[in-house]
Design a protein that fits this description.
Elements (H helix, E strand, L loop, with lengths): L4 H4 L3 H22 L1 H10 L20 H6 L13 E7 L7 E6 H17 L7 E4 L7 H13 L2 E4 L5 H11 L3 E4 L1 H13 L11 E4 L6 H11 L2 E8 L4 E7 L7 E3 L4 E6 L13 E7 L10 E7 L1 E2 L11 E2 L10 E3 L2 E3 L1 H9 L4 E12 L2 E10 L1 H4 L3 H19 L4 E5 L14 E3 L4
Parallel strand pairs: 3-4, 3-5, 5-6, 6-7, 17-20, 18-19
Antiparallel strand pairs: 1-2, 7-8, 8-9, 9-14, 10-11, 11-12, 13-14, 15-16, 17-18
Helix pairs in contact: 2-3, 5-6, 8-9, 10-12
Bound molecules: zinc ion (ZN).
């Protein structure tokens, strides 16, 4: 089953001809509209006219999250604001988020790619999609929502949280498809058990899980506990949001990346050279149809490999392997992207806190937890205990308010946290993927 059979099964020569045409038009647009890219292309000695083959892609400059940060909020937009109909944002490396804008056409393309993704996962018109991705600046909720409507399925806009109610609705409304983070699905399964609800008696058939990396072991656990087929979906707001790539239910062997909209390359994250198919490295994506914020060779920092062999489902689009890590220090905690540098800048703004901290990430009862250990002023320990408690509360509240992630602050005496002579070890991640 396909949503758009013609485009999903384009033979590679036709697909590559389309990619080149779209890439040339994209380069002409960003050269004209985005000063950042005009400068970068001039520097690389490439004009829009001199770009004649897909192989020329490797001569083009990369785009990084840092570049997006420096152009905050709208500096990378390639269309006038009056053509932007939607704005989303994701966590940046410091206090400011990374902002993305969508034109009407961008929303249409995104909806189609999400609809294609749903169909690849085995979802069809007539399904009742229980969408527990967060609605808001985060792209998950609205991305899945628009795709579900485009497909013609019934969508329940649950958003995250209020797990008891989620289970009641799933039971009463006859939800057949669940979309959320993989860890939240297991949390739901546990909560349902406590409520005396057996997932085997629900109508749920398929789960589409993303926004955080997960393992085959976790897939097995989810499929058993929820009695469903669990599918991995990939996306990032800088590129579009969910629906950049998805596994098909035929094989669950790699995620098809929609190559008529995105060009994928795998590079060595240190030296930047392109790696051959099958070799693991950092995924780099070029958007070739986006109007609001087209990106050239965007460094996703996600580690995967790519396989161009046509697959037995009939789709010709390349498959990327499930994400196996990051080439930077970004943490994904309950689907929220967090950089240690963000927590550091919050801590440094709080009086009495010393510049030594350690983040301990764990997964208990299928939910991620974050403990922030931080050294505080010696004087505070001879003070009343309530002062320490108030300080811990301030830290927890500021991190929750500014980053959207719940943590437990543990205040420790000066010189408790181990010092290192090289790069300080700021994170201990005890989660097993
Ligand atoms: Zn397939």
């Amino acid at each position: 089953m396909f949503f758009n059979e013609e485009f999903e099964t384009l033979p590679r020569p036709a697909l590559e001809a389309l990619q080149l045409k779209r890439l040339q038009s994209m380069i002409a647009r960003i050269y004209k509209q985005v000063p950042f890219y005009r400068t970068a292309l001039d520097k690389a000695g490439i004009g829009p006219e001199s770009f004649n083959s897909l192989a020329d892609l490797r001569r083009l400059p990369f785009t990084t999250k840092q570049d997006l940060r420096e152009s905050y909020p709208y500096g990378m937009f390639a269309t006038p604001m009056e053509d932007i109909v939607r704005i989303h944002a994701s966590s940046g490396t410091t206090g400011k988020p990374t902002v993305v804008g969508y034109t009407k056409k961008d929303i249409e393309n995104w909806s189609e790619l999400m609809a294609r993704s749903f169909v690849a996962a085995g979802v069809h018109k007539g399904d009742i999609i229980h969408n527990s991705y967060g609605y808001g600046l985060f792209t998950g909720g609205l991305g899945a929502h628009y795709g579900a409507e485009r497909l013609g399925a019934s969508v329940i806009p649950m958003s995250g949280g209020n797990t008891k109610k989620q289970i009641m609705i799933m039971q009463d409304f006859g939800s057949t498809v669940l979309t959320c983070t993989p860890s939240y699905s297991l949390f739901m399964a546990e909560a349902a058990k406590e409520e005396g609800v057996d997932f085997r008696n629900l109508h749920l058939r398929v789960g589409i899980f993303g926004a955080e990396p997960w393992s085959e072991a976790m897939r097995t656990e989810i499929e058993e506990k929820l009695n469903i087929s669990a599918i991995d979906i990939y996306g990032l707001s800088e590129i579009m949001g969910p629906g950049v790539a998805i596994e098909c239910d035929t094989a669950k062997s790699g995620l098809h990346i929609w190559e008529d909209h995105f060009l994928a390359e795998i590079i060595n994250p240190d030296a930047g050279e392109i790696l051959p198919p099958g070799v693991k490295g950092e995924l780099v994506i070029t958007t070739i149809t986006k109007e609001g914020i087209p990106l050239l060779r965007y460094r996703t920092r996600d580690i995967t490999s790519v396989d161009y062999e046509p697959w037995r489902c009939g789709r010709t689009h390349a498959r990327i392997a499930r994400m196996s890590g990051r080439s930077d220090d970004m943490l994904i905690i309950r689907g929220v992207n967090v950089f240690p540098s963000q927590i550091e800048s919050i801590l440094m703004g709080i009086e009495g806190v010393e510049p030594h901290y350690l983040l301990i990430v764990d997964r208990k009862d299928n939910l991620d937890s974050l403990e922030v250990q931080v050294e505080v002023d010696e004087g505070l320990f001879s003070d009343e205990i309530k002062h320490l408690q108030a300080l811990a509360h301030t830290i927890e509240k500021q991190i929750k308010d500014l980053l959207g992630v719940t943590c437990k602050a543990r205040l420790v005496e000066p010189r408790t946290i181990a010092r290192s002579e090289g790069k300080a070890k700021r994170v201990i991640d005890n989660r097993k993927l």
